[in-house]
DNA sequence: TATAATTAAATTGTACTCAATCGAATTGAG
DNA sequence: CTCAATTCGATTGAGTACAATTTAATTATA
C-alpha cells in the first residue's frame, strides 16, 4: 500500500478548510465593530433575532442559530447581565425559558444598523459573487 | 429616526451567518469520523499539513492554517502527547519551535485517507457547485 | 559593542462550541 | 390515574479561538 495516493488529504483539496478559515476571518472583522456595542459575534447574531422577533424561547433560538443550550445558556445570561434581554420561565410550561428584548437592547439597534454597511466590501467579492456564495451556503446547510 | 429601515439587520440578509453555520455544521460531521482517529477537527487539519511537509515551525503552520500560537501551542502539545508529532527548538534559532511528524503520526495517514470519501456528498452540493463554492471562499480569503 | 527593536512561542483571560449528562416538568399509554 | 418516555434548559468537561501580554532569543543601529 505504499503507492497509496494521498492527494485527497492535501489541505488544498479540502472544501471544509476555506469554509472554516473564511468563517473565522469574517467573525474577526466583525469584532472590531462589535466591541463598540460590547457584543461578541455570537451575541450579535442572537441580537439580530431579538430585534426581529422581540421574544423567543431557547429551543427556537437554537434552531434559528444552529446552536444548543450549552452555548446559549451562558450567552443569554451574559446578554441579560448587559441589560439587553430579560429571561423568565413560561407560565404555561415551566420547562420553557422565554427571552425577551429590553428597551436597552432595542436602543442598541440604532448603533448596530451601521455595521452591515461597514462590513460591505470587506470580503473581496463582487455583489454577484456574494449572492452566489450565499445561495450555495444555504443549499449546503439544508 | 423611528422610520429607520432595519432590513440590513435581518439574520437572513447576512452573508456571515450561513458561512459561520455551515462551517460549524461540516466540522460537526467530521467529528464522527475523526473520533476513530482520536483527533479533533483542528488537530486533523494540522495533521493534513504534517502529512504533506513532515516538519514545520509554529509560525509557518499558523500561516497555513490562519491560526496563532494561542491556539497552536496547546494543540501541538496534545498531538505530541498522542505521539503523532515531536516538538523541539531549532538549533539555529532557539526562538523557533520545530514540529515533526512521528512514525505513529505517519501511520495515521492510512486510516485518514478514507475520510474525504466518507465526507463526500455530506453537503448536498453537486461537484460543480462544490468547485464554485471552493473558488469563492478562496477568493474571499485572499 | 551596548542597547533598542524585532521576532517567535508561550501564557493569560474571556468566550464560545458541542457532546454527554442531569434534573425538573410535561405528556402519553395502559 | 400512574409510571415510563419525552422534552427543555442547565451543567460539565475538553478543546478551541483570539487579543493582549510576557519571556527569551536574535538582529540592527548608534
Task: Describe, in plain words, how this protein is organized in 3D.
- 2 copies of one chain form a homodimer.
- Chain A is mainly α.
- Chain A has a single domain (3-122), classed as Arc Repressor Mutant, subunit A (Orthogonal Bundle), CATH 1.10.10.10.
- Helix content of chain A is 59%, strand content 9%.
- The longest helix of chain A is centred in the N-terminal third of the chain and has 19 residues, at 16-34.
- Chain A is globular, with a radius of gyration of 19 Å.
- Chain A starts with 15 loop residues before the first helix and ends with a helix.
- Chain A binds a DNA duplex (30 and 30 nucleotides) through helix 1, helix 2 and helix 4.
Can you give keywords for this protein?
homodimer; Arc Repressor Mutant, subunit A; DNA-binding; mainly alpha; three-stranded antiparallel β-sheet; 7 helices; 59% helix; 142 residues; 9% strand; 3 strands
Portion of residues within helices of chain A: 55-70%
> What is the topology, as strand order, of the major beta sheet of chain A?
1-3-2
| CATH C-level class of chain A | Mainly Alpha
Q: How many beta-strand elements of chain A? A: 3
Order of helices and strands of chain A: HHEHHEEHHH
